[in-house]
Design a protein that fits this description.
The structure holds two protein chains of two kinds. Chain A is an alpha/beta fold. Chain A is built from twelve helices and 18 strands. In chain A, the strands form three sheets. In chain A, strands 1, 2, 3, 4, 5, 16, 17 and 18 form an eight-stranded mixed beta sheet that branches. Chain A has an eight-stranded parallel beta sheet with strand order 6-7-8-9-10-13-14-15. The longest helix of chain A is centred in the middle third of the chain and has 18 residues, at 206-223. Chain A is globular. By secondary structure, chain B is of the alpha/beta class. The two termini of chain B are 15 Å apart. Chain B has a five-stranded parallel beta sheet. A four-stranded parallel beta sheet of chain B has the order 2-1-3-4. Chain B has helices spanning 17-34, 59-70, 91-99, 115-120, 138-152, 170-181, 210-216, 238-245, 249-253, 275-278, 285-305; strands spanning 48-53, 74-79, 105-110, 126-132, 159-163, 185-189, 205-207, 219-222, 260-262. Chain B is 38% helix and 15% strand. Classes of the chains: A alpha/beta, B alpha/beta. Chain A binds chain B through residues 186-187, 189, 192-194, 196-203, 205, 269-270, 314-319, and chain B through 13, 83, 85, 90-92, 110, 112-115, 117-118, 132-136, 170, 173, 196-199, 201-202, 231-232.
């Protein structure tokens, strides 16, 4: 199969063609030719603002397989990912059973082997994510676990966290942390603030996150090792991470696309698609997030893809599950509202940084390389509809949004996927 | 006929000052009606109203039912103490089953915040919120405003302090919205763990000292301590609560003025109010109950007249 990308601007700081507009020929998944030639192919991709970058990578997604395959499985999740421009993604261990054994890690690897989007399993740190006994992390690592996490739980016990950070150092392993003191946030439904007060909904205070970030950084300072804070949602947490980085601690963090786009005043509609954890924060917080993105404290942007079926969402607000899907829309959301962030920075957050954090090599756009690329139009205006959702679940508040910028296709592992 | 600006009564938050005044004025007329020898008017003849209560309630349900009967509506009642979901049926299915029997209006109490708002997006019937979790209880706030207005002639400029568990109280929130829309000054007083952290952002005064709060206000609206809604401990004991936040006669006598005592009921006698206060001339608690029927008649009457 021969694919031609016609007059595509290459955005890849590792490529000799960075910022150049070229024709690119890909034959059977391999970048064969880059230049100004005139040539035809089986498939020709063209668009007014056609761009190509190394394939995007999502650093936080829940696949729900095994356990809740009616909400999402590996097949539908990778399809959603490809549609959103991702050639790589992690899957979080909060499955049923919890991703904590070698066979489950291999299940994910085997099931996704022939999918266009590579899936990197993140295994549990503690058995059943209970925060009590640590899993066989060396063995899980050898089996292919890319990092370790207790999913949507912090590691409750300070000493278990301490031992985990020490133990992970035997193979330079990475801990992904969901920072939330669940006692402080118990029964919380949305961000604590003026809106939660007006709505009579119990709050999820930012304090619950900050306490854990602060504690974990203290322990990291003691043990060494490395922590990545996932879906951080408090300016104070970013400030703590900023100080830790300045001090030289091995710490990174990410934010969800939805936290950059939406604020908690929208909850007045009681739309359960807006019920997420971390919750939508205040308008002032959203402004602060953009400044932390701009000054580089925030390393990556994630989908935090969390599929929930109709039965889990079309309910009274407090009974509805947390979460929204996001794989299909991350880039378009952020590109639409990107304020004064350059496209190149944005691509760093969704392509380079996630691989850097996980220690995965960066694909490069040059002749002779196996193509792992995302092809997109950064200026195309389009409306996000239910038909654009490839996930089994449809829980997103972005349906109906007018987006700017659209992923058009991905090529990876010799396969291609083209959005219609 | 004057109309409300809303199709449903989901909360006081959605009402304009004009809406509230219209309801209170209409309630005034109905109060006169229910004090006649023949208490019934034909206003809602042929209208069927379902009272759906997913939480225990005695006075609110009876008050609504009486209001509906005084207006000649046909009434059906459904109550279930547990959430319908636990029985395997969703709220929407339960309500749609009731509506399939050709019901025009729904009066609903539910433990989930926003449940009437959720329903309003999925069904055609008109909805009156009879209390949604810790959010709003609009007819309670309207009858409270009616009672204040009845006593003082107006609500504007009055100082009203709400005492007790503000954090879990739909009565408090609806009262704050209604009183502020009518121009009253509002304070809240209680143990700090029972006051929402951001309550000041609603332009509400906060006072932790019971005596100082009583000295400030013209009206004390004392809330029931909702032990049943507290899964987390917010204060150590009822004993300590009644000692430091209970209102008794000697405390009221020590003030150099008369204040009006309100309570949405049911009273925990000896906890938030002593009996010699609840039964004293300060108390308008039974007037509130009487006014409740008139106010609910007004709400149902005005909503029934509202066009799509």
């Amino acid at each position: 199969m021969k694919i031609l990308l016609k007059s595509a601007e290459i955005i890849d700081k590792n490529s000799p063609y960075h910022f150049q507009k070229k024709n690119i020929i890909i034959v059977d998944g391999k970048i064969e030719k880059i230049g100004d030639f005139d040539e035809t192919a089986d498939i020709v991709l063209e668009s007014p603002d056609l761009k190509v970058s190394p394939g995007w990578f999502d650093l936080r997604a829940s696949i729900k397989d095994p356990g809740s395959e009616h909400k999402e499985d590996i097949h539908s999740a990778t399809k959603a990912a490809a549609s959103g421009g991702f050639t790589g993604m992690v899957c979080m261990p909060n499955t049923k059973p919890v991703l904590q054994t070698k066979d489950l890690v291999e299940y994910i690897s085997n099931r996704s082997a022939n999918k266009i989007t590579s899936v990197y399993p993140v295994a549990a740190v503690t058995i059943d994510n209970k925060g009590e006994e640590i899993t066989e992390m060396i063995d899980l690592h050898k089996a292919g676990a890319i990092a370790f996490s207790d999913g949507n739980k912090p590691i409750w016990h300070s000493d278990v966290l301490l031992k985990t950070l020490q133990y992970l150092q035997s193979f330079d392993g990475l801990l992904l942390v969901h920072a939330e003191d669940k006692y402080v946030s118990m029964y919380g439904q949305m961000n604590e603030g003026l809106t939660s007060t007006l709505l009579g909904l119990k709050g999820l205070p930012k304090l619950a996150e900050e306490i854990i970030v602060e504690r974990d950084l203290r322990i990291l300072r003691y043990t060494g090792g490395k922590i990545h804070f996932s879906h951080v949602s408090s300016p104070r947490s970013f400030e703590l991470i900023k100080e830790a980085k300045a001090e030289g601690l091995n710490v990174t963090c990410d934010i969800t696309a939805y936290n950059l786009a939406l604020d908690d005043t929208l909850l007045a509609s009681f739309d359960t698609n807006l019920k997420v954890n971390p919750p939508l924060r205040s308008k002032e917080d959203v402004d602060a997030f953009w400044s932390y993105l701009k000054n580089g404290i925030i390393d990556a942007i994630v989908s935090d893809h969390n599929p929930q079926d109709e039965e889990s969402k079309n309910l009274e607000f407090d009974l509805a599950e947390f979460g929204m899907i996001g794989l299909e829309s991350v880039f378009s959301i952020v590109n639409t509202i990107k304020r004064d962030i350059p496209l190149e920075t944005l691509l760093d957050k969704i392509a380079y940084a996630p691989r850097r954090i996980l220690g995965i090599s960066q694909p490069v756009i040059k002749e002779g390389e196996l193509a792992e690329i995302t092809i997109f139009d950064s200026e195309r205006e389009w409306e996000f509809t239910k038909d654009d959702i490839k996930s089994k679940s449809k829980n997103t508040p972005f349906v109906g949004w007018k987006f700017k910028g659209k992923p058009l296709a991905v090529i990876n592992k010799g396969m291609y996927f083209i959005n219609n | 006929m004057q109309h409300l600006s809303v199709k449903h009564l989901l909360g006081i938050k959605d009402l304009t000052r004009e809406d509230i005044n219209l309801i209170l004025d209409t309630a005034g007329n109905f109060k006169e009606v229910i004090n006649r020898p023949i208490k019934k008017v034909p206003s809602l003849r042929d209208i069927t109203i379902a009272n759906i209560f997913f939480e225990n309630s005695t006075r609110t349900r009876l008050s609504f039912e009486l209001a509906e009967k005084r207006l000649s509506a046909d009434v059906i009642n459904f109550s279930s103490s547990s959430s319908s979901v636990k029985k395997g049926e969703t709220l929407l299915d339960t309500v749609n089953n009731i509506l399939a029997m050709k019901v025009d209006m729904i009066v609903m109490r539910h433990s989930s915040v926003g449940s009437p708002h959720y329903l309003s997006k999925h069904i055609k019937a008109k909805i009156v919120n009879a209390g949604d979790g810790t959010h709003e209880h609009p007819t309670q706030a309207l009858l409270d405003a009616f009672t204040i207005k009845e006593k003082f002639g107006h609500v504007e400029g009055k100082k009203v302090c709400i005492f007790g568990d503000i954090l879990h109280s739909r009565v408090a929130l609806s009262n704050i919205f209604a009183l502020q829309k009518l121009g009253a000054e509002v304070m809240v007083c209680g143990p700090i763990t029972l006051l929402p952290k951001y309550i000041k952002d609603l332009n509400v005064k906060v006072e932790l000292d019971l005596k100082k709060a009583l000295e400030w206000c013209d009206v004390a609206n004392v809330l029931r301590i909702q032990l049943e809604r507290q899964t987390i401990k917010y204060f150590p004991s009822l004993r300590e609560y009644s000692l430091y936040y209970g209102i008794n006669k000697s405390l009221l006598d020590s003030l150099n003025k008369e204040i009006m005592i309100m309570h949405p009921g049911p009273i925990n006698r000896g906890v938030e109010l002593s009996s010699d206060v609840a039964d004293s001339h300060h108390s308008v608690i039974l007037n509130q109950v009487e006014n409740g029927v008139a106010v609910r008649m007004a709400v149902l009457y005005l909503l029934a007249g509202a066009t799509e």
